[in-house]
Amino acid sequence: MEIRFLYSDQCPSHDEAIERLRKVLDEEGINAKIEVIRVETFEDAKRFRYPGSPTILINGHDVDPVPNHEYAPTCRAYRLEDGRISPLPSVSIIRKAVHAAKGES
Amino acid sequence: MTNLKIGDKAIPFNLTGVDGKNHSLAEYSGKNAVAVIFSCNHCPYVRAWEDRMVQIQADYDMKGVQLIAINANDASKYPDDSFEKMKERASEKHFNFPYVHDKSQQIARAYGAERTPEVFLFDKTGTLRYHGVIDDNYDDQTGVKVKFLRDALDAILSGKAPITTETKPVGCTIKWK
Q1: Which residue range forms the structural domain that includes residue B157?
Q2: Domains and CATH numbers, chain A
Q3: Which of B91, B107, B98, B130 is nearest to B176 (CA)?
Q4: Into how many domains does chain B fold?
Q5: Which CA distances in Å does B76 have to A79, A94, B20, B69, B174?
Q6: Residue of chain A with shortest Cα separation from B47
Q7: Residue A69 has what pLDDT?
Q8: Which residues of A are less than 8 Å from B48 in CB distance?
Q9: pLDDT at residue number B24
Q10: To the nearest whole angstrom, how far is the Cα of A93 from the nearest Cα of chain B?
Q11: Residue in A closest to B45 by C-alpha
Q12: Is A105's pLDDT higher than 60?
């Protein structure tokens, strides 16, 4: 499984986000390397098709795809299952993406 | 690092709001407390907290408290923070406080604001009494343990000093030009 974690320093949620990602991978028994990429410029945001921090790609797929999003080095909003807006993807959003990737690999 | 320290006087401003009117700090000089909150549209931290901002204004309105949200983000790079989008957000979320545009970013720079949301709470003499976050849990309102802004308001309104006067702002950085 190929995993990329993209983040911007200016958004404080990335430490907790990568902790959640590691926890899910651990619980799912996946021993994959996480490629961590720091994105601080608009040029890099466009290059990585990065809608904001944190962004988690599993086998190239965003754990919570956002259509028509602008690419910018800023914080990213996630809509949680209960409708709340959060700067972090929930554990269940990450887990669902991991399960989907397991199914395809 | 903020330019204002606890005990400093408020820095005046006169900025255009989403209601099309100009709002100056002097306009609220008769209030018992004024919370100047640097805010914006796109930041998920603001979006997580903004319903609580509306509720605080509703709960404290009759006690002479006024919230003012200021968006200073560079909309040329972050179009979601444009004045037009500010109007949409204020309407959609039923903002019950002025939401004003600091297009030149002069006020945000003068205050030394760094994040959104970031609260500067002034008492009726215009003296800074609390600076920082709204509460201790952006992610889950039901998990809030310390309601910093409400606690500071309650203290000010009862003529006491807030127990906590400063917390570290948590949110997106202000997007400078």
Answers
A1: 31-173
A2: 3-104 (3.40.30)
A3: B107
A4: 1
A5: 25, 32, 21, 20, 13
A6: A85
A7: 80
A8: 84-87
A9: 96
A10: 15
A11: A87
A12: no
